[in-house]
TrEMBL record, chain A:
NCBIfam families: PA_CoA_Oxy3. Gene3D superfamilies: 1.20.1260.10. PANTHER family: 1,2-PHENYLACETYL-COA EPOXIDASE, SUBUNIT C, PHENYLACETIC ACID DEGRADATION PROTEIN PAA. The gene is paaC. It comes from the Bacteria. It comes from Nocardioides deserti. The lineage of its organism: Bacteria, Bacillati, Actinomycetota, Actinomycetes, Propionibacteriales. InterPro entries: Aromatic_CoA_ox/epox, Ferritin-like, Ferritin-like_SF, PaaA_PaaC, PaaC. This is Phenylacetate-CoA oxygenase subunit PaaC.
UniProtKB/TrEMBL annotation, chain B:
The lineage of its organism: Bacteria, Bacillati, Actinomycetota, Actinomycetes, Propionibacteriales. Residues 31-85 form the MIP18 family-like domain. Residues 11-22 have a biased composition (Low complexity). Residues 1-22 are annotated as: Disordered. Residues 1-10 have a biased composition (Pro residues). This is Phenylacetate-CoA oxygenase subunit PaaJ. It comes from Nocardioides deserti. The gene is paaJ. Residues 140-181 form the PaaD zinc beta ribbon domain. Gene3D superfamilies: Fe-S cluster assembly (FSCA).
Amino acid sequence: MTADFLLGLADDALVTAQRLGWWVSRAPELEEDVALANIGLDQLGQARGLYAVVTDLEGLGRTEDDLAYLRDAPDFRNVLLVERPQTDFAVCVVRMLLLAAWQSEVYAVLAAREGPARGVAAKAVKEVAYHLDHAAQWVLRLGDGTELSHERTQAALDAEWPYLPELLEPAPAAPVDPASLRDAVLGRVRPVLHEATLVVPELPADPPTGGRAGRHTEHLAALLAEMQQVARAHPGATW
Amino acid sequence: MTLHPSPSPSPSRSTGTGTGRARSAWDIAAAVPDPELPVVTIGDLGILRDVTENDTGCVHVQITPTYSGCPAVETIRADLVEQLTCAGFRRVDVEQVLWPAWTTDWITEQGRSRLEAHGIAPPAPVRAAAGASGGPVDVEIAVRCPRCGSPDTHEANRFGSTACKALRVCRSCREPFDHVKPI
């Protein structure tokens, strides 16, 4: 169960890194290109650290690269929140806010006690604090900005919010039961949204879910095809 | 606001079994420059955690990354192997350790002065409260311009040219400069 849980966290981070990489050269300003690349790099590093822990726990002889490059979409355990395209900057920052709030909480728990992922989590919790702060600053600036930026940020929130419950689904056997983080995660997110003058939607009764069980949207396969193509076309190649 | 020095342990220095050689192995390893901040060494940055040598002349080096995704780690590993091999050590084994997590509080005084002398503002002490709880990042600490010394500077981008640095601009002398972020 521990390996499955950590694989989910790792896949969230890897898919997020890949999505953030898309923004390089496309962000609203040069500084933001650099910021999103840096945040993506942190996420990539966290994914690598977690994959190393997972392969150790599994003991199946799989490597970090096997996990990243040689699995198909149904084998990935990331949440749906992170895999959908994010070609609108408001979506990018709203999603980062939700994900970073969740990651902050889960890594803080993992870093505070003995366990195989403690070292990765202890680094991650410090990095994610910067991601959360960066996302919050943008959500405030855009939400409480112009009429247009407010509208687009509200639309982004309305689109992303239904995917939050999947992160908080109960998993009592996991090293950290996500349901136990619910109040803490909402406690980080809601004040930012309120200050940004955004209307916080109701959490849906029947939210989209399935990522942790390998049931993904059609977007993940396309993302993986791009991310994995070189490794698959040239098996074992190094450079 | 009160700043608390971090209670985290400093990097240790074991001398292993071959005391004389291991000491020089430490010195050689500690002198490896950081690939992204070549004005400081990995000893200055506190990235070098431990160096031990066994009876057969093999050296075991422990390093810790600054950030999870720091791309310099592989270069540092290669540089350590090269430097120690050239110094006559027969086998060099570099291990990456994550726990306890690196903090900018481990940058030595010499490292801080070297950074500042090269126009990179060193980090303020990490707040005790910001540690494991991952609380809000404090952005209110004044950072002094390493060129003119003015505290009147502002952050242009929290994420700078490398993962560990932010980009700031001095309002007094108008120069942009890098700032090593407290973490």
